[in-house]
Every structure is written in structure tokens, then in C-alpha cells.
Write a structure and sequence with these properties.
mainly alpha, 2 helices
Length: 59
């Protein structure tokens, strides 16, 4: 019984899955932040282009 418990505690296979899950979560959070900032900057750029082309009548 003692050997089975020690073998279970030394098993690192489950830790690998947890690590991959944490990495995936961090990547998803980073993508969300980047896309949010990029989206607002693109909106500003396209609005200024639209106003320059149409003198603000079509925006």
C-alpha cells in the first residue's frame, strides 16, 4: 500500500496536462488583450480615414 501511494505521488503525468492548460489559458488571455487594443486602434484609424475621404458625411 505504501508503495502504491508513493508511486502515485511521484507520477508527474497529470502535472503536464495542468501545465498545458495553464499555458493555453495565458495565451488566450494575451490574445484577448491584444485583439481588444488592436480593435480600438483600427477603429480610430478607419474613422479618421473615412472622415478624410468623405468630409465626415458617410461616417
Amino acid at each position: 500500500m505504501k508503495n502504491a501511494v508513493l508511486k502515485f505521488l511521484r507520477d508527474e503525468q497529470g502535472a503536464t496536462a495542468v501545465e498545458y492548460g495553464m499555458i493555453a489559458g495565458l495565451i488566450a488571455a494575451a490574445i484577448t488583450v491584444i485583439v481588444g487594443k488592436l480593435g480600438s486602434q483600427l477603429n480610430t484609424v478607419f474613422t479618421s480615414i473615412c472622415k478624410a475621404v468623405n468630409n465626415g458625411t458617410a461616417c
